[in-house]
Amino acid sequence: MDIFRVDGKIALIFGGNGYLGKEFCKSLLEYGAKVYCCDININKTTEIKKLQDTFSEKFQLIKIDATDKNELIKFKDNIINKDKRVDILVNATTMKGKDFYEPFEKVSLDGWNIGLLGNLTIPFLTIQTFISLMKKQRSGSIINISSHYGIIGNDQRIYEGSNLNKVYAKESYNKKNRIYSHGVYNAAKGGLINFTRYLAAYYGEYNIRVNCISPGGVYHKDENEDFLKKYSAKVPLGRKANLDEINGALIFLASNASSYVTGHNLVVDGGYTIW
């Protein structure tokens, strides 16, 4: 079982204060890593406070705008001074524009660019900033969080009557019955998968592994029953993932258990994409 341990490893999780990000922080901490939870949002939720209390010496919440290369460079300098290395880099960021749930014809260029920035450009910036440390130490595991929608198109019918706009984009919430999923999410997440392959080939000679996880839908208590039923009917296992069910894939790819795995997209979707 020791091959799954990451004791003494330094892990950076961008988007670490997000819905999945907090779970990733917790899981890596439990398996022995020192974790930097990097996010522009540093609101101390119950989960974050618990991590600070339980893992006080191994957990730090860092406010950072990962779209700003200068902020990333300053953060890298601090890491060099404190820890000298980075072993695990997780990109779990996402951003939605105000028109994320509008029909494709009404999507603005700003909304498109925001989606690219949060889902694809930030991983470009974080990896470009920290890859020099991994090259120097000749080791590292980079894990990009994509989506099953990076490899398939959306069935737009399942969004009719859903409340996803209220749950995930409160600032643009309206009560209309028909919403749509934004094409930029598929474009960016699909790009992230192939960007992962590119980086795996580029840095393999340095013993740096670059992999991707593509989760399917993850259960959220605020999603309405209408949407949950429609989504779950498309999944062979008949349900959305529990919040902690992506952690196993993360630990596998972060640890020596996957020491010969690179350039891989690990799909964790309950079978959604097999039919």
Please supply descriptive tags for the structure shown above:
single chain, alpha/beta, seven-stranded parallel beta sheet, globular
Summarize, please.
This protein has 275 residues and is of the alpha/beta class.
- Poorly predicted runs of 5 or more residues: none
Could you estimate the helical fraction of the residues in percent? 25-40%
What is the number of beta strands? Answer: 7
Order of helices and strands: EHEHEHEHEHHEHHE
Q: How much of the residues is beta strand, in percent?
A: 5-15%
* CATH-derived architecture: 3-Layer(aba) Sandwich
Computed over alpha carbons, the radius of gyration is 18 Å
Structure description:
This protein is of the alpha/beta class and 275 residues long. It has a single domain, classed as Rossmann fold (3-Layer(aba) Sandwich), CATH 3.40.50. Helices cover 38% and strands 14% of the residues. The protein has eight helices and seven strands, in the order βαβαβαβαβααβααβ. A seven-stranded parallel β-sheet has the order 3-2-1-4-5-6-7, with helices on both faces. Helix 3 runs parallel beside helix 4 and helix 4 runs parallel beside helix 6.
